[in-house]
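Q: What does the assembly look like in three dimensions?
Context provided by user:
Components: two
Sequences:
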Amino acid sequence: MSEHHARTAPRPIDTDAAQVPALCDEDDRSLIAAVLEGRDGALEILIRRLQPALLRTARAIVDESRAEDVTQEAWINILRSLPEFRWNAALKTWAIRITLNQAFSLRRHDRRQQEREAPLPDTFNARGHWRERVEPWHADTPEALLASEQLSQAIQRGLSALPETQRLALLLRDIEGLEMTAVCNILDVSASNVRVLLHRGRTKLRDVIDAFQSGC
Amino acid sequence: MLNCRQATEKASALLDGELTRSERWALRLHLMICHHCRRYLRQLRLTLGAVRRLAGAAEPIPERDVSALAQRLRNELKR
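A: Here is the predicted structure of the complete assembly.
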C-alpha cells in the first residue's frame, strides 16, 4: 500500500458498539461522513450497501475462489482513499472501478489469457431481414422465465460465457445500473463501443433464452 | 427505412435511452410493420429483466460475513 494511502487512513472504528439504525436510510454522502468520523456501525452499513456489487464485479474477472480476496483488497484501498474521494463519480461507480483494478491486477499475476469471441450467428439474410420467424416465448414476465431452474442456470452460464468486455458492460449497465458515461469511463471505451458490447451481449443472452423456450 | 438487422441494433440502444429522436422514429416505423422485431424487442426486455433479477436475487451478504469483513478491515487499517 502506498505511503499516501497510509497517511490518509481513517481512524479506526469501534467494533463493540451497537449499530445505529438511523444510518440505514442516509444517503451515500452522510454514510461516508459517518465512516470517516468512525461512527459505530457505519462501516457495516457501507459494506452491506456495496459488497454485493463488488463481489459481482470481482467474479466477472477472477475465479469464485479469488473474488473475496479481491474485494477485501479493494475495500482496504477504498477505505484508505475515502478521505480523498471528491464525488466526481458516484460512490458505487468509484468503488467498482477500484475493485476492477484490483481484479485485473491479481489476474495479471495469474497470466490468464483473454478468451476469444465466437461470432454472433447470422440470423439475417442479405437484405437484413430475419432468416427465420421470431417465435413467441411461453413466459411473458422475467419471473415466469426464472421459474425454471434449468433456464436460470442456462442464463448464468450464458453470462459467464460472454467475452469479458461484454460481460463487464452488461454487469455495469444492466445489473449494477450505472450510467452509460460511467460504463464508458470504467471500461475506457467510447459510447459507441459500449453500445456494440451491450447489443452483442444482450443478443447472446436473449438467444440462450430463445433456444430454451423453443425446446419447451 | 431500417431493415431488421438495423432495427435489432437500435432496439438495444432504445433500452438505454441512447437513440436520437429521428432514430426513435425510424425504429418505431419499422416496429409498426414488423411483428418479428416487435417480438424481439419484447424478448430483449424480458431478457434484461431476468438477468437483473437473477443477479439481484443471488446474494444478500450474511450478517456474520459483514461483521467479519468489517473486523478484518479495521485490523488492517490499524496496522
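Follow-up: Residues 191-214 of chain A form the longest helix (24 residues).
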